[in-house]
Amino acid sequence: MSMQEKVIAFAAGAILLASVVLGYTALFAQPKLGKPITALPGVAADQTTGELSIQLPDPAADVSPTPKEPPPPAAIFPLDLNEVTVHELTLLPGIGPVLAQRIIDHRKALGRFDSVSQLQDVKGIGPKKFAEIKDLVTVGE
To answer: What is residue 77's DSSP assignment?
Structure first.
């Protein structure tokens, strides 16, 4: 994109933003709404002249979305299958509350897990899921 195209794009954006602000000004000037335009984020009014100023976001700023839920800290792994709770099992990839309860039920039926490979006996844990979680669990000592 050439410099001239960038200037044109910026000007078009500024004109669009100004029209939105003017529209908001007209809309919020009505007393029944009771909210001034200066209540919007990034908009301020000069106290002496009443002129509006708009603070635009930096286009070079990193605006990557933040993850909704951070991954669990690595410090809690490996989980001991003979002591883990349903909630802790749900921290494993691909393990929801239903499958976690099946693992707990299987542990109760066995008395205790003797090896991690016994997880494959739980309905819902196939070779693919087992490969994903086998390094994140242990059977204690």
So the answer is: P
Threshold 0.85, pTM exceeds: no
Q: Which residues contact 8 (CB under 8 A, 6 or more apart)?
A: none
Q: What is the DSSP letter of 37?
A: G
Answer yes or no: do 88 and 132 share one domain: yes
Judge if 50 and 78 occupy the same domain: no
User: Measuring CA to CA, how many Å separate 106 from each of 53, 57, 69, 89, 122?
Assistant: 65, 55, 29, 13, 7
Residue by residue, what is the 3-state secondary structure of 97-130?
HHHHHHHHHHHHHHCCCCCHHHHHHCCCCCHHHH
Its domain, for residue 16, covers 3-54
Whether 65 is in a domain gets the answer no
Per run of 10 residues, the mean pLDDT along the chain (length 141 residues) is 80 74 59 60 74 72 59 71 94 94 95 94 95 92 69
Domain count, the chain: 2
